[in-house]
Amino acid sequence: MNTLSKSQRYAMLATSLIESGSLLRLGSLRQLILGSFLVALVPLAALLWQSQTDLARVSQLTVKETQHIASLVSKVQQLESASVVLERALRQYQVLKNDVAAGLVENAIGRFSEQHGAICDVEQRVNGCVQLRQTVTTLRGFRAFDNPDMLANQLTLMRQQLADIDVSVDDAIAERLVVQQQDVSAMQVRQTWLSALLVSVSLALILLGSQLIINPVRKLKLIIRMLARQQGHLPPLSTKAPRELAGVEQDLHWLGERLAQLEHIRTALLRHAAHELKTPLASMKEGCALLSDGSVGELSGPQQEVMSLINASTTRLNTLIEKLLDYNLLLQQAQPKFTLVDVDHMVKQCIGDYKLALQKHKLDIDLACKSITADEELLRRILDNLVSNAVAHGALDKTIHIRLSVDEHNAYIDVANDGKKIPKEKISSLFEPFIRGEGARNDNVIGTGLGLSIVADCARIMHGDATVIDVDYADVCFRVRIPQQEEKH
After folding, report:
1. Helix axes 99-120, 29-96, angle to 10 degrees
2. Rounded to whole angstroms, how far apart are CA atoms 320 and 330?
3. Helix %, strand %, coil % for the chain, to 5?
4. What tens digit of pLDDT does each residue of 59-113 get?
5. CB of 235 closer than 8 Å to CB of 222
6. Weakest-pLDDT range from 299-313, 341-355, 401-415
7. pLDDT score for 230
8. How far is CA 271 from CA 279, 301, 311, 377, in A?
9. Which residues are 469's β-sheet partners?
10. Between the CA of residue 346 and those of 56, 352, 361, 391, what are the distances in Å?
């Protein structure tokens, strides 16, 4: 019961330490780590102290029992020696019958009685003590033994009683050893349960201390992912976290605000720059058209060549501005509008828009279904940019593959072409904005580097993604995954 109360006290102490651990959350990271380490060591220190106490107790018990057994065995041997001396003195008296011999007998009986009392008074469980005391009392009247047979009978009885005492002492020693073993076994059981309890408490404290660090770190990782993906508002600042991690979280919130400001500035810049460039560009195109038509006078051959270059540059600049406007609108769209889209009709429209460019390529269209659930505007941008990319980078006179497959949860749009394969180390950055692919385009036009970025952003807005996959029918294949869900109005 005493050991159980100690275990309860240890558990109560550990519980109080766990509750007080919340105070460490407001300290520094070093204080939290050191405090958690020290708190986790408290149950182990208590276990070590209890183990040392039990070990000392077992050692004391072993020494005490060993001394007792050794003393008891020594007293039995002394009693047997005294019995031999007493028997020799009695036989001498039967022969001599004088006062000197009688005195030796009296002394031998006295020493024998002392040894007898030393055993029987200390070890109460020894059998035969009362009978041997009665025999000693009888032997005190040795002067009245006229018949030698009377002495022989008493000596024989004494030897039998000594043998009984010897056996009884052995039994008592064995019984004490059994009791000692039971005590040690019970102590081992208590030590085992106490060890399990305190080690469990220590592990709980270690897990608690690690959790106090892991939770803020997980929150920091979540904030970083949200910043990278620009997903909504950041979670509120933590009030129970180490100072260093709380400082990092505050910096990330500041960084998030700064990124939002920069994103707003970038969007505004793209919008205003694109619109401001459209007006002078329109004037330049109109002027080039008038000069090319000869409305203001005939142009010479070199002048016509210069005008063709200017027309090509203005057309290129107009394409770049439209791409920037398209990318700007895409950045401003936050939520998709899912409807049931006729993919077959959309693919035909897209092919019609690229009819002239596709004359140098073959087409392989394989649609597993005619319609899917998606944002119609975003899906059309995906098809336009993927087909434009295949036309620009696909090998001439080779087949461009457009395929649609659907499983239980997703729709997959694959646009593949033959040509130069994309190195694996560059696939991860291929969908970043303003990243252009290597190699010359079929149309000899410098790309904006926004096409595949727009594809990835459109897929992301529809909760999907864009990747590059390996197929056996083409060298390069872009796949867009669009999760399928119920139509939203």
Report:
1. 160
2. 15
3. 70, 10, 20
4. 888 888 888 888 888 888 888 898 899 889 888 888 888 888 888 888 988 898 8
5. yes
6. 299-313
7. 65
8. 13, 39, 24, 19
9. 477
10. 88, 10, 19, 18
- For the purposes of burial, counting CB atoms within 10 Å of the CB of 457, is it exposed (0-12), middle (13-18) or buried (19 or more)? buried
Q: Could you tell me the pTM of the whole model?
A: 0.45
Residues 195, 198, 199: CA angle, nearest 5 degrees? 80
CB neighbour class for 208 (10 Å; exposed up to 12, middle 13-18, buried from 19): middle
The Cα 72–Cα 175 span in angstroms is 14
| Concatenated DSSP letters of 4-16 | HHHHHHHHHHHHH
Annotate 383-442 with DSSP letters as a single string. HHHHHHHHHHHSPTTSEEEEEEEE-SSEEEEEEEE-SSPPPGGGTTTTTSTT-PPSS--T
One DSSP character per residue, 320-378 reads: HHHHHHHHHHHHH--S--EEEEEHHHHHHHHHHHTTTGGGGSEEEEEES-SEEEEEHHH
Q: What angle do CA 161, 163, 169 make, to 5 degrees?
A: 105
Query: Secondary structure of 282-332 in the HEC alphabet?
Result: HHHHHHHHHHHHCCCCCCCHHHHHHHHHHHHHHHHHHHHHHHHHHHHHHHH
Residue type, 474: A
Count other Cβ atoms within 10 Å, centred on residue 471: 13
End-to-end CA distance of the chain: 71
Taken as a whole, the chain contains a residue count of 489
**Per-residue tokens: 398:** 């080779």
Strand 399-406 to 362-367 pairing:
parallel
